[in-house]
């Protein structure tokens, strides 16, 4: 496709139609009841506000990771991190990645015709993986560890079933 084709009225109209068909089916812009239509618009606006807030949280979290890492590096012994510092840094990195995944979930919620369950399960797996990485095994009970293991296994099986090609 040439650059001229991309700017043709027919192509632009088709692209606009494609964009309209990608709206979330549970919150359509068109509805026979005017009140429901207004409520859908409000909910879509709320989801957009959540997306903006999530981007702010991501940026602030990145600044926090940089600050904490900098503070750890400049304290004696310089440029050395102990295991606790490394685990804490990994946890902070994973929190940022989870926030990014949540933002992607919000963005897809607005634009996809169905909720991407695979991405939601993957986000949950990342969150529980973070919990496992930063878990202080000296302070938790065996029941808590078993419950966490059950969640990991359940999410892993769910993800495998969703992604399995039939």
From TrEMBL:
Keywords: Cell membrane, Membrane, Transmembrane, Transmembrane helix. GO terms for cellular component: plasma membrane. Pfam families: PsiE. It is a multi-pass membrane protein. It is found in: Cell membrane. Its main location: membrane. InterPro entries: P_starv_induced_PsiE-like. The chain crosses the membrane at residues 45-70, 117-133, 145-162. It comes from the Bacteria. This is Uncharacterized membrane protein, DUF373 family.
């Amino acid at each position: 496709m040439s650059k001229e084709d991309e700017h043709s009225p027919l192509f632009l109209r088709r692209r606009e139609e494609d964009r309209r068909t990608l709206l979330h089916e549970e919150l359509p812009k068109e509805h026979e009841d005017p009140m429901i239509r207004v409520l859908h618009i409000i909910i879509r606006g709320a989801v957009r506000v959540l997306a903006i807030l999530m981007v702010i949280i991501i940026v602030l979290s990145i600044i926090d990771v940089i600050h904490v890492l900098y503070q750890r590096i400049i304290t004696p012994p310089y440029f050395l991190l102990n295991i606790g510092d490394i685990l804490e840094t990994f946890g902070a990195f994973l929190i940022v990645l989870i926030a990014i995944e949540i933002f992607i979930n919000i963005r897809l919620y607005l634009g996809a015709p169905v909720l991407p369950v695979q991405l939601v399960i993957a986000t949950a797996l990342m969150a529980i993986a973070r919990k496992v990485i930063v878990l202080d095994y000296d302070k938790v009970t065996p029941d808590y560890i078993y419950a966490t293991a059950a969640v990991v296994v359940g999410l892993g099986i769910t993800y495998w079933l969703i992604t399995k090609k039939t």
